[in-house]
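Supplementary Methods S3. Complex input for the 2-acetamido-2-deoxy-beta-D-glucopyranose-bound model.
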Amino acid sequence: MLTLFTESFFWMVINVTALFFFLCTILFSYSRLVYVDVDNDIAVSSYDELYSCGVKTVPLDNGSTRTWIFLVDTENCRIPNVDPFDTSIKHLLNLHSKPYRCDDRKLVTYIQGNTLYLNQTKQSKHLSFCRFKAIYRNGNTFEFGEESQAFNRSIEIKDEFIKVMCYNFSRSVMVENYHLHFIMKYPKTKESIYNSKQSNDIKNNTTINHLIKTGKTLNVLSNQNGRFEIKDHLNVLLVMIDSTSRINSLRYLPKTRKYLIDTLEATEMLGYNKLADNTMVNMVPFLTGDYYENQPCLKSKHGVDNCSFIWQNYSQSGYLTHFGEDWPRIGTFHYSLKGFKRQPTDYDDRPFHLANEKGSRLMMETCFHGRSSSETLYWRIYDLAYNLRNKHYFSLSILSRMSHDFLEGVKNLDNLSLNTLKKLYENNLLNKTFLAFFGDHGMRIGKVRMTFIGQLEERLPMMFIYIPEWFKTKYSSLFNNLITNSRQLTTHF
Ligand SMILES: *[C@@H]1O[C@H](CO)[C@@H](O)[C@H](O)[C@H]1NC(C)=O
Ligand SMILES: *[C@@H]1O[C@H](CO)[C@@H](O)[C@H](O)[C@H]1NC(C)=O
Ligand SMILES: *[C@@H]1O[C@H](CO)[C@@H](O)[C@H](O)[C@H]1NC(C)=O
Ligand SMILES: *[C@@H]1O[C@H](CO)[C@@H](O)[C@H](O)[C@H]1NC(C)=O
Ligand SMILES: *[C@@H]1O[C@H](CO)[C@@H](O)[C@H](O)[C@H]1NC(C)=O
Ligand SMILES: *[C@@H]1O[C@H](CO)[C@@H](O)[C@H](O)[C@H]1NC(C)=O
Ligand SMILES: *[C@@H]1O[C@H](CO)[C@@H](O)[C@H](O)[C@H]1NC(C)=O
Ligand SMILES: *[C@@H]1O[C@H](CO)[C@@H](O)[C@H](O)[C@H]1NC(C)=O
Ligand SMILES: *[C@@H]1O[C@H](CO)[C@@H](O)[C@H](O)[C@H]1NC(C)=O
Ligand SMILES: *[C@@H]1O[C@H](CO)[C@@H](O)[C@H](O)[C@H]1NC(C)=O
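Predicted complex, serialized as structure tokens:
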């Protein structure tokens, strides 16, 4: 991620451009879209002006005197700015889908601090008492602990994940609730950023500081044992919305986009391109800095534990780390790989989500025991950001359930995303935080893929980068690089 700030990124862009030149020539140049084979890239049947790919290009900034026909307009790559509602695609869009609703009548318990309460206003007269069980990690799956003593009003909890069972007067289970509970953990390494002698040396190394100020951090950022030589250690908060392109976010995430752009003044990476087909092969480069194909450790039948993930580097620098995915059965490292034998991060939500969704029959279920898994994950993000506000953390959340299968699904995340970002910002929890709100790729399935815009958006995930205002001023040259890169072809690494 940090490469997005550096000048070295330009060099990378040039290399990557060579690789993607092929893709670009197919996709972005001289194609009057005539027919499309779903399994192949767009077939070019005749040469024409770039503008007439069968779709109109639109100005990016409405009201601005400068109209952008191209989002990216560089020597080797041009990405047209298309209308997300273009007539070539509009009939394939579901613009009036009903929002999902979770029946929360059975959500009768809640956690505050270290106490689990029975919500008195919701309590049915048939409810006699409740008990809970801890949920533990057991390799790639989970197990339950012992059943707690019974309680009627509240009970103290020490576990991170719990399942609550409430019984009626003939001792039958009436409801099951599942909760995540914040537990303070401590960085694994003693050599953390708080006390490292080396990082002090780096802090007052005027040479390095000068380089950072002038943006000439080419080598400086990557040497010194992989530590970041920026004085201010930002938290890293990554929110990935599966299968969400920039183009689709224009259709279905209008409120979140408006907030990111107008209030948070986040930078949108307009030429952000995926590297390979699905989630795993795109998230691997994002998290490891190399393609899936180049990493035998990922193919081990024992799991992916031996690979080196970026959160480990943060962990070595004293950060607490979090990884959460709301659809664990198709988890990034579990769907086609063997998962993690050991817990990968300090906070790892997998056992919770597995237990929570167990027994749901529908693949496409969105609600579990009174709450959508997306709501739960957003709740978790806020809870961690709040409780770790005086620490350093790296958090990666992957929301798949709502957005994976239908273009309009992500509409269900607009209110949730907006409300979470708003709450984080208004409670001053983003002042020390680097936030990326992004997709891994666009929609890979369905009829839209048969259109030019559909193929374009499949390859161009959404990517918003928020950095605190003071950081932009203090490291203005890095920020300027980011702005420049926002209109270049960029990728997950
Ligand atoms: C763009 O601006 C024009 C003229 O001001 C206005 O009519 C139109 O509704 C605007 N479109 C959007 C998408 O805001
Ligand atoms: C989002 O919130 C608005 C207003 O609060 C509401 O009208 C709308 O139905 C909500 N959308 C969804 C998908 O929940
Ligand atoms: C308790 O239930 C009431 C009624 O549904 C609800 O309005 C309230 O938010 C709940 N309280 C908590 C803390 O969840
Ligand atoms: C809960 O309340 C019911 C009725 O008031 C009572 O019969 C039961 O013993 C109580 N259970 C516990 C664990 O306090
Ligand atoms: C408790 O629930 C079971 C299963 O739903 C039901 O058969 C039983 O009648 C209930 N008992 C009482 C006292 O409500
Ligand atoms: C470097 O910084 C540390 C802590 O900020 C300070 O204690 C130390 O005196 C500084 N060293 C030099 C050479 O400025
Ligand atoms: C400061 O960092 C530069 C670049 O890594 C290094 O060459 C130089 O020796 C360092 N100076 C001090 C005083 O540590
Ligand atoms: C992260 O740590 C690994 C192993 O120590 C190292 O090989 C890699 O270069 C580091 N990555 C970054 C971006 O610092
Ligand atoms: C990791 O590497 C060690 C040493 O090479 C090996 O024994 C172990 O089986 C590997 N673990 C996995 C999960 O591949
Ligand atoms: C955000 O942090 C900066 C730098 O630490 C500080 O100057 C600023 O006052 C903070 N802003 C708020 C709103 O806390």
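Residues 197-491 form a domain with the Alkaline Phosphatase, subunit A fold (CATH 3.40.720.10). The radius of gyration is 24 Å.
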